[in-house]
C-alpha cells in the first residue's frame, strides 16, 4: 500500500494552526512571525513533508523548472558550471532543464523561440559564439521570464551577469610569459564580438604595452574554441615570416591543439615556444608537458548565477547585478624555458 504523503493540512493539524498560516510560513511571507515559521519548518522536517510542486504551480503559475542554455556539455568548464547550478537549484526546490545550442546562433534562437512562461520560471544563459543580436533575449525577458547570463554574456541586455575576471586573468598570463623571457607573444582567441574574448584581448594588449612589446596583427588569430581550431591557429602562426616565441590561448582546448601541432613539428614546448591557456581543464595536467593556465572558478560561477536567478524569480523588482569572480594563474611546464 502506498504510504500517505504528508500535506500542509497534516502539519496544520499537528500544530493546531490554520492551513493558511502553514502555507504562508513555508513560503516565508512577511505576515508570519519568525517563531511560527520556525515551528512550521521544524514540523515539516520532522514529518518528512515534500512540497507538491505540480499543485503549487497551478496556484502560483510556477513550473519550478529553470532552463540552462549553453553551447556544450562535453567539456570540463560547462559540466562544472552545471554542477554548481544544480546545488543551488535543488536546494531551492527547482529542477533544471538543459538546452544545448552546439554553439549555433540559429539553434539558440530556435530554443528561445519555443520557451514559454509555463515551461520554466527563469533562464541561465551562456550565449553562442555566433550570437550577433539581442532581440531573442529581449523577447524572453518581455514575456516575464528572468535571465541571468554567465561566462559568455550579452553585454547590451540589462540583467544580472556572472563572469570570471577575464581581463586580469589574461594580463597575468601574458605578464608571466614576459617575466619568463618570452618577447614575441601571439594570441589565439575566439570569435570577435564576445565580451569575454574582448576582455582577454584587452588584458593581453595591456601587458604588451606596459612592457613596450610589439603588437603584430598576424600574431592575433580569431577562430572557434575547439582543439582543432587551436591546431589550425598554431599552423598559421608557424607560417608567419617572423614566428612568435610564445602563445596565449583563449582557452585550454585551443592551447592543447597548439601544443599538439608543436609536437608534430618537433618544436620544444617551453624552451622554444611557451604556451599558456585559460580554464584549468583537467587535461592541462595530463598533457606533456603540463600546461600553464589561468584557473576559472567554474563551479562558483554556476552557484552564483543560480543564486541570482532565484532572486530574480522570487523578487519581482530585484536590481540586476554584475558579478566578476577572481581567476588564478597556475604555472606548469609549458612556460619553462630551461
Automatic annotation (TrEMBL):
Residues 6-60 form the HTH lacI-type domain. Pfam families: LacI, Peripla_BP_1. One of its GO terms (molecular function) is transcription cis-regulatory region binding. Keywords: DNA-binding, Transcription, Transcription regulation. The keyword Transcription applies. Transmembrane segments: none annotated. The keyword Repressor does not apply. This is LacI family transcriptional regulator. The lineage of its organism: Bacteria, Pseudomonadati, Bacteroidota, Sphingobacteriia, Sphingobacteriales.
Amino acid at each position: 500500500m502506498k504510504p500517505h504523503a504528508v500535506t500542509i493540512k497534516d502539519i496544520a493539524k499537528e500544530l493546531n494552526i490554520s492551513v493558511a498560516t502553514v502555507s504562508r510560513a513555508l513560503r516565508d511571507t512577511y505576515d508570519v512571525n519568525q517563531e511560527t515559521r520556525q515551528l512550521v519548518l521544524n514540523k515539516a522536517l520532522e514529518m518528512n513533508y515534500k512540497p507538491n510542486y505540480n499543485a503549487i504551480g497551478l496556484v502560483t503559475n510556477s513550473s519550478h523548472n529553470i532552463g540552462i542554455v549553453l553551447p556544450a556539455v562535453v567539456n570540463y568548464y560547462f559540466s562544472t558550471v552545471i554542477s554548481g547550478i544544480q546545488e543551488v537549484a535543488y536546494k531551492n526546490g527547482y529542477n533544471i532543464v538543459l538546452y544545448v545550442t552546439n554553439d549555433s546562433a540559429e539553434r539558440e534562437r530556435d530554443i528561445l523561440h519555443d520557451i514559454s512562461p509555463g515551461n520554466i520560471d527563469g533562464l541561465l544563459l551562456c550565449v553562442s559564439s555566433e550570437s550577433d543580436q539581442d532581440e531573442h533575449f529581449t523577447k524572453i525577458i518581455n514575456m516575464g521570464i528572468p535571465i541571468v547570463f554567465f561566462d559568455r554574456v550579452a553585454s547590451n541586455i540589462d540583467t544580472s551577469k556572472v563572469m570570471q575576471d577575464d581581463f586580469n586573468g589574461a594580463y597575468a598570463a601574458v605578464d608571466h610569459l614576459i617575466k619568463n623571457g618570452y618577447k614575441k607573444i601571439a594570441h589565439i582567441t575566439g570569435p570577435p564580438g564576445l565580451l569575454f574574448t574582448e576582455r582577454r584581448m584587452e588584458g593581453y594588449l595591456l601587458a604588451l604595452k606596459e612592457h613596450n612589446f610589439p603588437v603584430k596583427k598576424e600574431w592575433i588569430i580569431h577562430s572557434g574554441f575547439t582543439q582543432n581550431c587551436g591546431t589550425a591557429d598554431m599552423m598559421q602562426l608557424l607560417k608567419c615570416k617572423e614566428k612568435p616565441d610564445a602563445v596565449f590561448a583563449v582557452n585550454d582546448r585551443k592551447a592543447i591543439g597548439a601544443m599538439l601541432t608543436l609536437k608534430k613539428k618537433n618544436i620544444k614546448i617551453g624552451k622554444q615556444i611557451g604556451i599558456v591557456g585559460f580554464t584549468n581543464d583537467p587535461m592541462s595536467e595530463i598533457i606533456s608537458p603540463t600546461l600553464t593556465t589561468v584557473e576559472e572558478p567554474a563551479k562558483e560561477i554556476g552557484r552564483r548565477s543560480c543564486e541570482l536567478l532565484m532572486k530574480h524569480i522570487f523578487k519581482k523588482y530585484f536590481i540586476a547585478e554584475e558579478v566578476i569572480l577572481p581567476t588564478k594563474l597556475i604555472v606548469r611546464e609549458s612556460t619553462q624555458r630551461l
